Amino acid sequence: MHGGGEGGGGAVRRLRTGDPRCSGIVCYGGIVYLTGQTSDEGEDIRSQTRRVLEKIDALLAEAGSDKSRLLTAMIWLKDIQRDFHGMNAVWNDWVDAENKPTRACVEGRLAREKLLVEIQVTAVSPQSARSRL
């Protein structure tokens, strides 16, 4: 964990800092920011989306949050025409129906040829909400 930063939100917590390009998780001011998640496990959009959402669940838990605390989600699809409905089917089964985030979904070139989906989320930390009561 690396701290730093000043301001009303307290220290910046950085987790999963082994990647030279970015931190995997950054927590500041009661907000949890995850880097974009991908998975090249699986040959189709449904299996890749399931694996990405499993990774997001694990990272949110590591940061002290969960999918019921999501604020926003950004989704990139390699081929939006082909994969939008399959990704949505998995997303709809996963997302907390009572606490849906804002969301955008666009088509984009992903970092590796085999990748079909990338998802980045931002969430609230439950600990921060309790500390403000």
Describe the structure.
By secondary structure, this protein is an alpha+beta fold. It has one domain: RutC-like (60s Ribosomal Protein L30, Chain: A, 2-Layer Sandwich), CATH 3.30.1330.40. It is built from three helices and six strands; from the N terminus they run E-E-E-H-E-H-E-E-H. The chain has a six-stranded mixed sheet. A hairpin with a 2-residue loop joins strand 2 and strand 3. Helix 1 crosses helix 2. The longest helix has 18 residues. The protein is globular.
What's this model, at a glance?
The two termini are 26 Å apart.
Features:
single chain; alpha+beta; six-stranded mixed beta sheet; 25% strand; YjgF/YER057c/UK114; RidA_CS; YoaB-like; RidA family protein
CATH topology, anyone?
60s Ribosomal Protein L30, Chain: A
Structural class computed from helices and strand pairing = alpha+beta
| Average of per-residue pLDDT values | 91
Globular, elongated, flat, extended or rod-shaped: what is the shape? globular
Secondary-structure element order, N to C? EEEHEHEEH
Strand order of the largest sheet: 1-2-3-6-4-5
CATH level 1 class label: Alpha Beta
